[in-house]
Structure formats: C-alpha cells, structure tokens
Amino acid sequence: MVSSASHGWLPRCTALLTAALLALLYIQTSSSVAWNNFPCRSAPGLVVRRAAEASSQAEDAAEKAMSLDDQFESAIDLIRGTGGSEQDQLEGIQLLRGVADQGHLESQYRIGALFLEQEDPGYLQWAVHYLNLAANQGDARATSRIGMLYLTGTGVEKDDEKAAAWISSAANAGLADAQARMGSLLLGGVGVEKNPEWAGYWFQQAADQGSVDAMYNLGLMYESGDGLEKDIEMAKYWLRKAMKAGDREAGSILGELERAQQR
Length: 263
Fold this sequence. Notes:
Strand content: under 5%
Low-confidence stretches: 1-14, 26-48
Largest sheet: none
Order of helices and strands: HHHHHHHHHHHHH
Radius of gyration: 24 Å
Mean pLDDT: 84
Structural class: mainly alpha
Distance between the termini: 29 Å
Shape: elongated
Number of helices: 13
C-alpha cells in the first residue's frame, strides 16, 4: 500500500493560488530584462530612483526588524487569509520564499512542498531546490520527499538506489511515513537488496507510530510468515488496528481470516 502524507497547512490548489504562483514566476523572469526594451536611453530619473531606493531601504529595515519566525507566520497568514490578514497569496508566497532564502528551515520545506503540489512542471526545479535546502538542514520530511521524487522520477532522473538512500535516512530520523516506505522497498527489493526481515522491522517501527499502511503490511506478513514468524493472532491484531483506522481492505482480509478459523 502506498502511504499518503497530509499537508493540512496548505490551501487547496485553487485557480487563485496557481495565478499567484504564475505571477511570481513572471515577475522573476521579466524583471531582469525590463529595461532592455525601454524606449529611452536611461532608466527613470535620479530623483525617482532615489525615492524608490529610500522606500526599499525602509521596507528592508522594517522586515529585518521582524524575526524570521515572525515573517514565516506572516507569510502563512497572507496565504491563508488568517491571523487578521487580508488574503494575498502572491505577497505571502513572495515573503515565504524570501524567508526561505535566508535559511529558515520551515519556510524552505513549506515553499518546496507548495511548489511540488503545482501542476505546472516549471515549479518542479524550485521544489527540488528548496526541499534540498531543508533536507541539508536535517528535515526528515524533506529528506523523505526527495526520496519519493527519485523513486517516481519527478523533477529528477528516476533512481531507485538514491530513492532508497534518501528514504532510509528519513526512516532512521524517525519519520513514520519513511519507515513504512522503507519497509515496502525492502520487501520488494526496490533500490536495495530484498530483505523481508528488515522490512518487518521498519513496518513495526512505523506501525508503533500509527502508520496505517505499516499496520496493514504487518498483518499480511504475520499471516503469510514472510519475514516474520507466522502468527494468525498477531495478523488479526494488526489488521484490526488498520481496519479501525479506516483501512477497508484490512477489514476484508480480517473477515476472511476469522471465517477460516470458524470452519
């Protein structure tokens, strides 16, 4: 089973958010050539430039007065329209990206995840860039996501061995989703040598943290005896836990096991 991470902090991918991101890309790609096509011999007059520079310096000073955490919170409020802020997704994204560029780990992860959720492939390179920055600071979520990018060939060249290495790092850092995924890779021999015993270990680690996929897979392994000693009662235990957490397939298999015991 494939686990699906939830990102409740992010707004759904709406037309408004996509438009804001497209506008952000347009600003970045057009600003560097804007004056090349200006029909005069020079940019605006000295007075106008000085006024603009003074305004920019005042804004920079005010921004620096805020901590990076405060700027991050302000960016999220602008994107969501919460915290008393009027929703302005373009401004929020620009602020969030600026904070990420200053080394703020959570901003790096969030902007990377935000870019990754967009349908336009032009955002993928930026998603990989910011997730790499967060991963290099030790963020297990970003590390796991990079592993999944290598596993699916999204934004990077598909490479199962690199995928396994990234996911293994996140699993060892204690991330339940990565632990469940590592169990699946070991069970199937994807990017690593097949090892059902180690797969069972990682499924156990993830299940103990509440991973429904891991509970389901543990149930199957105990039922089949592949990688774990066959134990129908333990199989029923983990399948029942998965079922109670909302996994219908686990409930179906559990029912079959119980009916088989009654025959």
